Amino acid sequence: MKLSVAHRSRPKEGEVENGDGVLVRREGPYTLIAVVDALGHGAPAAHSSAVAVGSLSQVLLATGVDLLMEAVHASLRHVRGAAAMLALFDGQVLHCAGVGNVELRSQGTRVPVLPTPGILGQSYRSLRTVSTKMAPGDRLVVFSDGLSFRLDLESVRMQSPEEACALLLERYGRLTDDATVLVADVES
Ligand SMILES: [Mn+2]
């Protein structure tokens, strides 16, 4: 199976730089999807999210989601901290973990990921990673807290990932924060 992925991100109203960051990276059988939300907004937050995404670009995906998260944590030690959700798909199983409030929701197969309290770059408790066997037709939606947690996935069930991202950001984006949404469909 493979993931068909789209994402959309924009800074809070009045800002040019975006403190949210997204990465979609494929390597061998693996696809990594990641959404990062650095503390605050503006240039310092944009720098931190770029550092975090950069760190995720340099670790072999086969290393696994725990060590990918540790790489983000280490990269942010001397800059602003961040929240992040990482989901690593190996073609069959999705391994995911989050620190802070970037949320992952699913349609189809339930992915019972619970965010680990903490801030990457500062401290977080032992990482809770869940591994879930996926099925064709499943959808994953990852979003920063720049979108309302009341976000309704059913309302965009029939839309492509691209269209779903645009609609969700338009309907549920809060102008007071950087906002990012990523939609990934599992295909056979
Ligand atoms: Mn935020």
Notable traits:
188 residues, alpha+beta, five-stranded antiparallel beta sheet, globular, binds manganese (II) ion
Element layout with pairings:
Blueprint: E1 2-10, E2 20-27, E3 30-38, H1 42-56, H2 65-75, E4 82-89, E5 93-99, E6 103-107, E7 118-119, E8 123-124, E9 130-133, E10 139-143, H3 161-172, E11 179-187
Antiparallel strand pairs: 1-11, 2-3, 3-4, 4-5, 5-9, 6-10, 7-8, 10-11
The chain binds manganese (II) ion.
What does this structure look like?
By secondary structure, the protein is of the alpha+beta class. It has a single domain, classed as PPM-type phosphatase domain (Phosphatase 2c, domain 1), CATH 3.60.40. Helix content is 20%, strand content 36%. The protein has 3 helices and 11 strands; from the N terminus they run βββααβββββββαβ. The strands form 3 sheets. The protein has a 5-stranded antiparallel β-sheet, with helices on one face. Strand 2 (20-27) and strand 3 (30-38) form a beta hairpin. Helix 1 packs antiparallel against helix 2. The longest helix is centred in the N-terminal third of the chain and has 15 residues, at 42-56. Manganese (II) ion (MN) binds at residues 37, 144-146, 177-178.
